[in-house]
Fold each of these.
Amino acid sequence: MRELDWWVVGLYMALTLAVGLWLSRRARGGLVDFFVGGRALPWWLAGTSMAATTFSVDTPLYVSALISRRGIAGNWEWWSFALSHLVLIYLFARLWRRAEVVTDVELTEVRYGGRPAAVLRGTRAFLFAVPINCISIAFVMLAMRKVVEALGLLSAFPEWLPGDERLWAVIALSVFVLLYAGIAGLWGVVATDFFQFFLALAGAIIVAGFALVEIGGVTELKRQLVEAGRGDVLRMVPRPGSESLPFGTFLAYLGIQWWAFRRSDGGGEFVQRLSASRTEADAEKAAWWFVWLHYVIRAWPWILVGLVALVVFPDLEDPDLGYPLLMLRYLPAGLLGLVVASFVAAFMSTVSTQINWGASYIVNDLYARFVNPEASAERQVGLGRLASIGIVVLSATAAFYADDISTLFRFIIAIGTGPGAVLILRWFWWRVNAWGELAAMLAGFGIALASYLPVFAGLEFGTRLAWTAFGAAAVWVPVMLLTPAERPETLDAFYRRVRPGGPGWAAVRARVGQAPDRGLGISLARTAAAAMLLFGAMFAVGGGLLLESGTWVPALIVGVAGALALRWLGRWEREGGSAGVDVV
């Protein structure tokens, strides 16, 4: 890092803090203003913020390491979540906005009633706000710590500071994020997310461009990979018998992970953005914009960098470091500072969101619900800022002792697997009750933790997912059927508020006399067409960048067919063609 690089990074951080302070006035109105932006976010801002949240400093490092260990096909570890995000667009985005909750946990006492609903809400709020959220933030902080070390930025800290310099690097960045996230609330987070996302994307493109030019282009990259005996890394779908990515794990990603995970219906900070959107239509558009940015636009620069790192650093002991080492090797002064600023931007966008989201659980779903329901708006916002400090302290401590990004990522997925099926079914079947959801969450959490005991050390990840998902089902299904259904008045109130489709609400619909907002059948048809469009576009872009005509041509055909199907379904629905299947 030269002087010019430091000036670029410093200017970026000053600008971010200024925006946060300027928007702090929007966070003074109470919980709705502080945590869901007064429900006034435009779709493009909400969608970009969702994308920025999932684009952190850990992501390019994680993808680069995936390429080294499992090839391009290893990305199905996160590509598989595209299925749940497509379902989010057409099945859940409008429902979440219509529910008008501050957090997704608050929905439990809208969907269910009585003491079981209160227990479920409090349990979920604590688990998600503290252990799970802090592990997630630690995951991001660990990646930032590695970048700081790899780029030699520890020299910026004075020698008289006690303890390990790596800890001070994490603390310094976390405190800075806390300043604007704690002061400005959601508006400060999403506004800075907007330019942080595009800065981070530009940084990834710059690194990929310089690395490819230096190595001689895509053709030369592919030739060197084949000569090194690593030609299989270019495969986008693994073959049966593959050693790098076991086919059983691949099938578990596609067949289990996306629907069994705790965010199968959106969840967490995504719901926060959808609830903050201006209208239901804006919520749906925001989800589409996020999916397009997340899967089509930004994935391939990371993948290209990972492939180059595999050639330039074939024997790298820690594959997480391939990305920052390429930055040091190829970027000139000024551009290096810009890309480092993009890493800081990616770090800040995710951590600020996680802090604000975790604090919303602590204030809205624990303090205001169980401790002091009459607390003033000023007191609640103040507690939210105090909770933000506690979350940062716990997360920074965990990050200092963690070591491997990929391991933490899989652990987060594992402990969140189990309740996904219940979270989907509760929207479309009246019989799902609070006890069933509570049993699914606790069983999944417990089974996942047990699978990490030494006796199961050799358990393949796909098998671990299957045991957790179906083991949890073996618990929650009997619990649900053996405990009383929700009271009719609770079900009727939920249906009137949200108006979900599907035959599972037929009895309630007959009592209430109100049609659903959109039929389940047309929503599923749109989801299938959207899957063709999305995956077709993803692999058309990837095949084009890698000069693989056998990939991009058929992928483009599939994508165009999906787009035409979506257009036809939209016109058919507008003309009343779905009126006969509005219940289904």
Amino acid sequence: MSVAVDDLVPGRILRGSGLPAATDSAGDGVRDDWFDGIDLGAVSAAGLSAAAGEGCQHADVRITNTRTAYETARDDELSGAHATVDRGLAVRVLHQGRWGFAAVAGVDRDAAELAARRAVAMARLSAPLGSRPVALAPEPAHRGWWASAALQDPFDVPAADRADLLVARSAELLRDRRVSHAEAECWTVRERVHYADLAGSFTQQQRIRVAAEWTAIQVGAEGFESMRTLAPPAARGWEYLVGPVAPGGGAPGWDFDAEIAAMPELLAEKAAAPSVVPGRYTLLLDPTHLWLTIHESVGHATELDRALGYEANYAGTTFARPEDRGSLSYGSTLMHVTGDRTAPHGLATAAFDDEGVAAQSWDIIAEGTLVDFQLDRSMAAEFGRARSNGCAYADSYAHVPIQRMPNVSLQPAPAGPDLRTLVADVDDGLLLLGDNSWSIDMQRYNFQFSPQRALRIRDGQIEGQVKDAAYQSTTPDFWHALAALGGPQTYMLGGALNCGKGQPGQVAPVSHGCPPARFEDIAVLNSSSEGGP
């Protein structure tokens, strides 16, 4: 049996879909409607004035208003709903070369002055503990507002309608007798941030992101098996979740209905599929799977705070050292990885980071060589750089900004082939789609990943699914095994809403774009207890 390549991921949206630019709006206006009519200028000025009066060489005020909703469904009923509002302000200062930070839930001039005084007190308290003063790489002052591309604010959609969408698609799965149970989840986030600092920056931005997934479960003679939708989270509005054609003919969403219609057959095939034979294979990794391997083995490994040893307790450090910049052979010469806070619909896309640095795009790995790290302003100064590349983020007003990932993406081959051609060039291998389990060590070096679906390829033809496949490698060995990349027409963004880091722990949204990619001679294990090595 052979499988048509075009049917592998029903509903997929690729780069060439006429998506709108990431920066929809910019200017010098003030959006008071985003902050319930609060006089942001007066509040910011109060905090900055209080900090300046204490002799701070740097101070910034950050006001956030973030709404989050999360709904779940089990079979054909709503099983849970949760909504939060995170609203408050924070003042961060550099006083005599030492950091100070304080946050309060109120948003008015008194609250800003109180936070500034507390931040200065913290800086004074920590002064005896610091080994050397903190310096910040310079950044020009910025003024303006920006909003990510979204046709429909998900919070303009009644909660009952969001729940109905989850339940209706779950019920559609259950109509097929091969599906024993269905589970569904939906996340919607609207993040609004105002930033001002003593250098003169005064900005506002809104970021909307949505995600949903449906899981079909079969309990039968072959045992327990599951199949999950492959649609990634995205910095889009509600239109992304509704369907392939947005209202008014705007940017398309993911075709969930097409993917859900195909899931019962895919699930049945997976349940009956043979277990993979362990060995060394050519792996063809679809973007719906490869994004997570990029995230763990490249994204986290090129965070400079990990390389410097500042981040260790939460998920470890990295095998890449600061002195490796410009010399470390990370992978094959086909490997071109960018850090990017400007990608359309990227989850880490923004006009400015949480230190007031304007969004940028830059090379992290070029022709297989590590050429840069991810920075915030203090690390940029320590690293001898003229400017930060804009990688500071805090997930709440109550948390201090730390270095967080931009959209870290593997670039396609400029004239690369489509997926069909990539499959045709594989003699003995596996095509992996969707993320499943993963594990990586504390140096971002040794790892193991498994997919949602594994398809056997022989002599350039897909023969059908196998199950229990997982692959192991080290980061340098894996990326040096990169032998082919798809072209721009195959590129898509994957990602996650909840990348964890820091103490206290913070979560950050981040996307990873890539084309399908072929890796030669990779060790594949059988992960089942019956068929394992």
